[in-house]
Amino acid sequence: MLKSTLIAATKAGAAEILRFFNSDFKISNKEGVNNLVTEADYAAEKAILGVIKDSFPDHQILAEESGELIQDSTYKWIIDPIDGTVNFAHGIPLNCVSIGIEHEGEIVMAAVYNPHMNEFYFAEKGKGATLNDKPIKVSEETQAIKACLVTGFPYTYINEPNGPLEMFERFVRKGVPVRRLGSAAIDLCWVAAGRFDGFFEHKLEAWDSAAGYLIVEEAGGKVTDLQGNKFSVYQHKVLATNGKIHDEMVAVINNKKELQ
Ligand code: IPD
Ligand code: CA
Ligand code: CA
After folding, report:
1. How many angstroms does the Cα of residue 260 sit away from the middle of ligand 1?
2. If you measure from the C-alpha of residue 91 to the centroid of ligand 1, how many angstroms do you get, rounded to a whole number?
3. Distance 80 CA to ligand 3 centre (A)
């Protein structure tokens, strides 16, 4: 029931993404000049919540656009109705629905669906990760210098030592390819699928990372904060890798080792 509801909710959100994509939808601004929200974000979230509330009216919700619904339940659905809204608003088909289910403080089930590519990622704790029902696993790369990485940048500049641009520059100066897709959930899933060897970002919210985190872990990868400490979806800094380059990435990121 949990799994079928998760799949139905994810697909209901994705149907709204496709319905509005490249149409004349309303766009407004959140905090930060390019932090957009569209009519489609609200419609997708409404469709997702409708499916969940039909089956599990007592479950808790944390959804990007409508906020928190706190109830007496050990389950919490963590929802990003469109991850990659800037891409969506520009007609770039790299955006998705991302939903993670937390039970007693742990993410136990996750779905990320990019309907433009028809890529449905799913994971259940202890049962592996799949892309369109086929098992996926992380890459085999063992050296950070040979890795293909992906990152993302926040909507507002983070003025701190070792911030996003500094870290990006450190890898790029050594010739390491570092992509920027514009959807953290897709970034994480592409690490899980072995397309990228690693992903780092400084300022994610729970709805950006909850689903992708479990999908990476269940595909055999590792997710921590940028220091290599245990990951929680409620803190902002994320490092996700195939596991094999993780310690080296932590050392390079924290200036403890030169990338070579
Ligand atoms: C954003 C995307 C982006 C990341 C931002 C997120 P949104 O989510 O995941 O890749 O760099 O930090 O806020 O706003 O498109 O849901
Ligand atoms: Ca997001
Ligand atoms: Ca969003």
Report:
1. 30
2. 16
3. 5
Cα–ligand 3 centroid distance for 59 (angstroms) = 21
Using CB distances shorter than 6 Å, the residues near ligand 1 are 80, 83-85, 152-154, 182-184, 201, 203-204, 208
Ligand 1 atom nearest the C-alpha of 182 is: 10
User: Nearest bound ligand to CA 87?
Assistant: 1
Q: Which residues contact 190 (CB under 8 A, 6 or more apart)?
A: 150, 181, 196, 199
The one-digit pLDDT tens for each residue of the chain (260 residues) are 999 999 999 999 999 999 999 999 999 998 878 888 999 999 999 999 999 999 999 999 999 999 999 999 999 999 999 999 999 999 999 999 999 999 999 999 999 999 999 999 999 999 999 999 999 999 999 999 999 999 999 988 888 889 999 999 999 999 999 999 999 999 999 999 999 999 999 999 999 999 999 999 999 999 999 999 999 999 999 999 999 999 999 999 999 999 99
**Which domains occur in the chain, in start order?**
2-135 (3.30.540.10), 144-253 (3.40.190.80)
CA atoms within 13 A on the CB side of 244: 18
Contacts within 8 Å (CB) and 24+ apart, 115-121: 115/14, 115/15, 115/17, 115/18, 116/18, 116/21, 117/93, 119/189, 120/7, 120/10, 121/189, 121/192, 121/193, 121/211, 121/215
Q: What spatial distance separates the first Cα and last Cα of the chain, rounded to whole Å?
A: 49
For residue 226, how far is the Cα from the chain centroid?
A: 16
Q: Is 125 exposed, middle or buried (0-12, 13-18, 19+ CB in 10 A)?
A: middle
Q: Pick the closest to residue 218 from 110, 112, 76 (CA basis).
A: 110
